[in-house]
Write a structure and sequence with these properties.
The structure holds 2 protein chains of 2 kinds. Chain A has 9 helices and 16 strands. Chain A is of the alpha/beta class. Chain A has one domain. In chain A, helix 1 packs across helix 4. By secondary structure, chain B is of the alpha/beta class. Chain B folds into 2 domains: 253 residues, Spore Coat Polysaccharide Biosynthesis Protein SpsA, Chain A, CATH 3.90.550; 221 residues, Rossmann fold, CATH 3.40.50. In chain B, helix 1 links the parallel strand 1 and strand 2. The chains are: A alpha/beta, B alpha/beta.
Chain lengths: 336, 565
């Protein structure tokens, strides 16, 4: 990487940060409990819209894993999400009516909140349908992981998105508030992921899984990116460059080993495909607020009309993190 | 007679307090060294918390940093305090604030009482052990290290380079043979006092202050001078990863630590409540006299290091994406590729499956879509047949397939039509066994019902494609086990090569082939090739095929392959 290129990335990072700082004006604080944040707290950041039904389980899941405070941007929900979040004792919530798309799909908002509140904290950026799985997550809290990362001088932790889906049509089993979504969507694709290196940012670009298999068999290049780096020891000079797929400075994207070894990594179980999905897909299609003209949602809506099944004979049923580790989807690295 | 504990503490004071109370409760005096960089407030609070315990002393504080002299100075001060304040102590055990006693204190006391003259200190000469991380072994004792490795890495490295260039060689004090080993020791009063009260201590201290990582060599070296009986091992269970940083124990290691029979373990995660509650209770059951046995724990940590440094062969994933040449095996295991066999033999796939017991696919890289075994739409790992997804990253398709079907050998067909096949990839892969009958692509054309002009065009195209594939297989970069026959060569004696290939795939029992695949009827094929030639398209990959088979052959029924016994 030449000096010029790295200078360019530096400019880009600065630009992103300035942009994020300016976008703070779009956020209106609805419940500000950030004074409770202690210097060693683990923070979770999220943007959402109309996810009320998912919130109870989402918050509990991460509370149990040891997240101390949630900082959430509500993008104009009208299903009571905002009110629900305002009542929670460990949630600070901001509201905005502005465009999700124009804020780079929420990245600008969260970059601002992380800039303001995340400095020197371990920050986890997840959507309400993403559940963070890491080695030993059944016996050790996230704090054990971050302490180990600190001791190993590792600043960022990779967790690929693993799309989960139910068996049978997705409308068959309705999801109840507070329910573990993995009771319904407990199947996943174990071994059809492809990856290439992004030479500019140094991250891996991973595609595949059921969305690529069912929705994009003929345009695999349009299939959504699955690489994510959701857990970072934040510094106010950092920023996410594109969703949580990649960061600047680019050294943070080096979450994989290039000399044959395995670094420790986790997964984000993505419980997108519940019965709530059909309505969501149609709504998003109308709003047109998603990545590359919502091509993803167009494909979904098209396919969903013929009620496709994501499940296939070779789908794998989720048991625990050890199973995912054996399948090679995540790794313990040298954490034992 | 008892054991005295030196404890070096810099963080997690509540846990240190808990452990110190545990030691003293069972009659072991404790001398605590608190890192000088700890804030006065925290220090005061800690001292106050232990006020009520009679047998706890605090010694002079030093600034400790990893790889620095401070840790030795701290151990010295703590040791001096221990020797002066507790004259009845016979063994002095050095531990840290994150150490946890795993066995009842009485067992440790009995164990040491049974070995009153033994010093437990891991101590080996640098030449004999490969422990060092970072390439400095003998040089740690012969160069100067004024810069901190943690804080001034650049200066540290440069200074080493400069000294190497100038051939700096420090003089090692007389009588000293540098040894190194784990910094956690247990010495007898005699040995420790001899080290601390040596008239030459000044000289040694001055020397070791500029050695790299003196805490792993100071006591280890000097103990050799005075001890009458060194047992070169540490009583503290402590595992290090590939960067030389200690592994941490968590609640889920409880059973493992129990079974290890080690006296003390390092290092424990401060929030591992189950471990602290589990091990810091009054002992129950009979006192054991068993030897520490860290082998089990060794294994899981050795595995962790191997996973981090070598990884799992053939796996490409979010945190393992090796550069070319660093894969430790490009694919998970062996697989076989056949080119031209399915064209020459009518029932090749089922025959091969029967003969070898492997999983036999059709043309995985066929332009129409992958032909999985049994023509399934999806296969292991939810790999799908869609040609576009497959060709989007055909190497990943192949490595995924081999990874997903671990433990079961895969065979598949390729051919010049399969333009998406990652030929260069498998040509370079030592796991690939590639068998090619060159020119066999002409057989389907020969049997087809196309116009001859189209046949000619297609033949020219396929010949060119196959030539490129053979180029890869024959290149000096090729590491695959490749065998190439021309069609003419192969049909001379088909069973011999087949037997070789099958033997190499080698199911458990090497068997003789009981049954031969049916060769397709090639009557008139020579003439077909001649016609192509006459049209100006020279098929050369199939070798020398006679234009017409001899008169005698013509009358015979088509030749059946025979068995080579």
């Amino acid at each position: 990487m030449s000096a010029l290129q790295s200078y360019r990335l530096r400019i880009r990072r600065r630009h992103r940060l300035v942009r994020a700082i300016r976008k703070r004006r779009e956020l209106r604080s609805m419940a500000d409990r950030t004074a409770q944040i202690k210097s060693s707290d683990l923070l979770a950041f999220s943007t959402l819209r109309n996810e009320h039904i998912r919130l109870p389980y989402f918050l509990d899941y991460y509370r149990n894993k040891g997240i101390n405070h949630f900082l959430i941007v509500d993008n104009d929900s009208d299903d009571g999400s905002l009110e629900y979040l305002m009542e929670q004792p460990d949630v600070s919530v901001w509201h905005t009516r502005k465009s999700y798309k124009k804020s780079k799909f929420g990245v600008d908002w969260l970059n601002w909140l992380q800039f303001r509140y995340g400095h020197n904290h371990w920050c986890l950026v997840v959507d309400p349908d993403e559940f963070f799985i890491y080695p030993f997550c059944d016996t050790r809290p996230i704090r054990a992981l971050t302490d180990w990362l600190d001791a190993s001088s590792i600043k960022s932790f990779s967790a690929m998105l693993l799309d989960m889906y139910p068996r049978g049509p997705i409308t068959e089993q309705p999801y109840q508030a507070g329910q573990d979504p993995m009771e319904i969507a407990c199947w996943f694709d174990a071994g059809n992921y492809t990856m290439t290196k992004n030479p500019q940012y140094g991250n891996l670009w991973i595609q595949g899984g059921p969305r690529s298999r069912v929705f994009f068999p003929n345009e695999p290049e349009l299939a959504p990116a699955l690489n994510k780096i959701p857990l970072v020891k934040w510094n106010r000079r950092y920023c996410y460059a594109s969703s949580t797929h990649m960061l600047l400075p680019r050294g943070l994207n080096q979450v994989y080993d290039e000399w044959g070894g395995e670094k420790a990594s986790g997964l984000l179980l993505h419980a997108k495909f519940l019965d709530t999905f059909t309505a969501k897909a149609e709504e998003e299609l109308v709003r047109n607020q998603h990545y590359s003209a919502s091509v993803e949602y167009k494909a979904y809506a098209e396919r969903l009309r013929d009620a496709p099944e994501l499940w296939c004979k070779w789908s794998e049923k989720y048991i625990n993190w050890r199973q995912l580790e054996i399948l090679g989807l995540m790794s313990k690295g040298n954490w034992a | 007679m008892s054991v005295g504990i030196l404890m070096l503490v810099h963080t997690a004071f509540d846990r240190a307090e808990q452990v110190a109370r545990h030691w003293t409760k069972y009659g072991c005096p404790v001398v605590i060294h608190v890192d000088a960089s700890v804030k006065p407030k925290a220090h005061k609070k800690f001292v106050k918390a232990l006020e009520d315990v009679a047998d706890v002393r605090f010694c002079k504080r030093h600034k400790c940093e990893w790889g620095d002299w401070g840790l030795v100075a701290a151990s010295q001060s703590a040791g001096e305090t221990m020797l002066a304040e507790f004259p009845e102590v016979r063994h002095i055990y050095l531990s840290s604030g994150s150490c946890l006693p795993l066995r009842p204190v009485q067992e440790l006391k009995d164990y040491l009482a049974a070995r009153p003259r033994t010093d437990f200190i891991e101590s080996a000469t640098t030449a004999d052990v490969p422990w060092t991380v970072g390439g400095l072994d003998a040089e740690r004792f012969t160069l100067h290290f004024p810069f901190s490795w943690k804080k001034h890495r650049f200066l540290f490295d440069k200074w080493v380079d400069i000294q190497r260039f100038l051939r700096v060689k420090r003089k090692i004090p007389n009588g000293v043979v540098p040894h190194m080993g784990s910094q956690w020791w247990c010495l007898t009063r005699q040995t420790l006092s001899a080290i601390l009260q040596d008239p030459d201590r000044e000289t040694f201290d001055r020397y070791f202050k500029r050695v790299w990582i003196p805490d792993e060599s100071y006591f280890q070296t000097l103990a050799r001078l005075y001890s009458s009986n060194i047992e070169s091992r540490s009583l503290t269970l402590s595992k290090f990863d590939f960067q030389g940083k200690p592994h941490i124990f968590y609640d889920d290691h409880l059973q493992l630590l129990r079974r290890s029979d080690c006296f003390v373990a390092r290092k424990i995660w401060p929030r591992a409540n189950k471990l602290y509650n589990g091990f810091l209770r009054s002992p129950e059951g009979a006192i054991k006299m068993s030897e520490p046995n860290p082998a089990k724990i060794d294994r899981i940590f050795a595995k962790a290091v191997e996973r981090r440094t070598k990884g799992r062969t053939g796996l490409y994933m979010q945190s393992r994406y090796p550069n070319e040449g660093w894969e430790n095996g490009m694919t998970f295991g062996r697989y076989s590729i056949f080119q031209g066999f399915a064209q020459l033999f009518e029932d090749f796939e089922p025959w091969l499956a029967r003969a070898t017991g492997t999983r036999v696919h059709g043309h995985l890289f066929a332009p129409e879509g992958a032909e999985f075994e049994g023509r399934q739409k999806v296969i292991n790992g939810a790999l799908s047949v869609d040609p576009k997804s497959r060709d989007y990253n055909s190497i990943a398709f192949l490595t995924n397939l081999i990874w997903n079907t671990r433990g079961e050998r895969q065979c598949f067909q390729v051919g010049p039509r399969d333009e998406g096949a990652p030929v260069w990839f498998f040509a370079k892969d030592p796991n690939a066994q590639v068998s090619v009958i060159s020119g066999a692509w002409a057989i389907p054309l020969f049997k087809s019902n196309l116009d001859f002009a189209d046949i000619r065009k297609e033949a020219a195209r396929l010949q060119k494609l196959e030539n490129d594939q053979l180029y890869a297989l024959r290149s000096p970069y090729a590491k695959a086990r490749a065998r190439i026959w021309t069609l003419a060569e192969f049909i001379e004696a088909p069973m011999e090569p087949l037997q070789t290939i099958i033997d190499e795939i080698g199911p458990e029992k090497a068997r003789r082939l009981a049954e031969a695949p049916t060769m397709t009827d090639l009557t008139g094929f020579g003439q077909f090739l001649q016609n192509l030639k006459n049209q100006g398209m020279h098929p050369y990959l199939m070798g020398d095929f006679p234009v017409s088979q001899g008169e005698a052959d013509q009358k015979k029924p088509p030749r059946k392959p025979y068995l080579v016994q």
